[in-house]
Amino acid sequence: MKQLAILGSTGSIGVSTLEIVAAHPDKFRIISLTGAKNLELLAHQIRQFRPKLAAVADPAEIPALKKLLTGVDVELAAGEEGLCAAATASGVQMVVAAIVGSAGLLPTAAAIRAGIDIALANKETLVTAGHIFMDLVENYGVRLYPVDSEHSAVFQSIEGHRCQDITRIILTASGGPFRETPIDRLKEVTVQDALNHPNWNMGRKITIDSATMMNKGLEVIEARWLFDAPPDKISVNIHPQSIIHSMVEYIDGCVIAQLGTPDMKAPIAYALSYPERVSSGVKPLDLTTLSDLSFFKPDMQRFPCLGLAYRALGEGESMPAVMNAANEVAVDAFLSGRITYLQIASLIEKTMDAHQVHRLGSIEEALEADRWGRSTAGEICKTLKTGRFI
Ligand code: NAD
Ligand code: MG
Question: What is the pLDDT, as a whole number, of residue 388?
Fold first, then answer.
């Protein structure tokens, strides 16, 4: 029986994780859950999974949550302290880090320092403070299992092989809803168009990141740290069918790929049950019904965010944190109609241009770079001339 803490249990990854837990009551038990805004769902999850502890991001939400939990025996906590308490609650053996954005960093770090293994969905952790987190993982002797489908695919494709035999990690990307939209039409696309992902059903922020391909840029940075891979050995292929989730190429010319129906429950289940496998509820793949598996090089003019991510990785240290923060500000501004789709990339680039790269020695310094990126992007955002397209 593996005892779990789910950070961000009310989100897309959190809900899928709980579906797997519900299907395997003999294998997994929930010790703690956390959420932010969706109190009804959190209360429902608490009633169903009976954790010892539940935490919300904002202490002001506690009275409303208590009201929804009349008669339920659960300890409630809030704020950064509460999220860290949930991550390190007594008995937790694995934390599923599924909070979105940089809010996920400190609770994940607290779990590592408590010697708890991590199933990592929150890619911003490694983007913002990759080398610091990987040092923590090594120093505290914990295991970090990727949940992101591409990294799970790479993880599965390198098992049993020697690192020195790898020549390339090939991350696949669907190309999102604008893969074939004429470039001059991109200035008109709406939030609804951008949220209309062809293959994956995900949270709003990551869905916009998939449309701009910043998601793939963040994943290149994530792969750099997870697999200790130099940036020039990580490439991206557009694969619109999202059947091959990523590949690893070896010195003998062989390429090993992992395939499956695009459903996050498969990589989540593998992270939860490694080295075993459990049923995940994902529809098996019927290769005979697939008429085509195609691959393209990404068009860097169409997807400038991907180039910005490689640039941030090249400049290193504080730059990826600043880029990630600027992206969060830009996506939020786009989702709320304050900037246009094309302004997402230009806002990130302007913020990066304004940043002087400096060394990052701690998570606190990474969070400081994150705050700098957020406030600078916020200021630059106000100066952008916008048209509203919702
Ligand atoms: P989501 O928006 O659906 O859910 C986010 C969760 O984080 C919710 O439980 C929310 O309550 C919580 N949260 C939000 N802001 C918070 C804050 N300030 N403090 C504490 N909690 C907060 O997001 P998601 O799509 O489930 O993604 C979660 C993470 O997993 C992201 O980092 C994303 O990049 C990564 N990821 C998601 C997918 C996917 O398919 N959804 C795939 C790969 C990686
Ligand atoms: Mg992914």
Answer: 53
| Ligand nearest the Cα atom of residue 13 | 1
pLDDT, residue 217, reads 98
Cβ < 6 A, ligand 1 pocket: 8-14, 35-38, 57, 83, 98-100, 103, 121-124, 148, 200, 202-203, 205-206, 264
Ligand nearest to the CA of 11: 1
Task: Decide if domain 2-142 falls under CATH 3.40.50.720.
Answer: yes
pLDDT averaged per 10 residues, the chain (length 390): 98 97 98 97 98 98 97 97 98 97 94 98 96 97 98 97 96 95 93 87 89 97 97 96 97 98 97 97 93 94 97 98 97 95 97 98 96 98 70
Q: Which is the closest atom of ligand 1 to the Cα of 124?
A: 32
Determine contact, residues 17/263, Cβ cutoff 8 Å.
no
Which of 173, 177, 180 shows the shortest CA–CA distance to 234? 173
**Domains in the chain: boundaries:** 2-142, 149-262+282-303, 316-390
Residue to substitute in 12, 17, 127 for testing ligand 1 pocket (most ligand atoms within 8 angstroms of CB)? 12
Closest CA to 308 of 237, 180, 209: 209
C-alpha span between 157 and 167 (Å, rounded): 13
